[in-house]
């Protein structure tokens, strides 16, 4: 029982960060209907920004660096949308896919040229710290802090989307781009903000997992795949679905690693993904889209 509770708790904590990755991708897709294959590489850039902040003269803590990473990645995402993505919004899906794959390759190879392909590790005083919560169950301090920060960001994002004029305009653009434009909403501006927010969320997720994950230029491909599984599992365009999908993937990975094999955990995740596609193609919280 203790092993099960330990695995469940660990899965929920890492699933919260996965959810942040999925929310960023689903926000971009919901507003622009763009399939962003560079999402994981944007996360990777966030990881390297955190690494630079930590190894700089100031030695900024990875979790504190979120205050720097979030706005910088928002600006970076807005730049990518304005200069590149905006040009293929009305193009066929293949062109969008090829463009985002190309942007991802440029990011990963540029980082490789600057930092080489060597693995980087952020070793903090609390990287391996844990505390007991009873019943033989321990909690990882960095995972708990990551989950708490993720929760705050997610709640703030929900409030922004539901209560602010800009957030409502983003939701209106996601529901019907043409109708939103007819109602006077600047859909191009909303697209830039949505892509910026999606990139900021991905970069922030990168900062949050930096203390517990290896940093290397090709790490983005791993998280791009996870982001798509989370987004499709929760329902394309559904922020709530992405949150549930991320936590579900985290729990599935954690339980699979303990009760089956750590080498099979990704296989189990993709089996779950295929089952959802077979029996509920629109995802847990999504609706079929044309």
Structural features:
about 290 residues, two-stranded antiparallel ribbon, 2 strands, 11 helices, ABC transporter involved in vitamin B12 uptake, BtuC
Structural write-up:
- The protein has one domain (2-279): ABC transporter involved in vitamin B12 uptake, BtuC (Orthogonal Bundle), CATH 1.10.3470.
- The chain has helices at residues 2-32, 39-55, 66-83, 93-115, 141-163, 165-175, 177-182, 187-209, 219-234, 239-259, 265-279; strands spanning 130-134, 137-140.
- Strand 1 and strand 2 (137-140) form a beta hairpin.
- The chain is mainly alpha-helical.
- The chain starts with a helix and ends in an 11-residue tail after the last helix.
- The chain has a two-stranded antiparallel sheet with strand order 1-2.
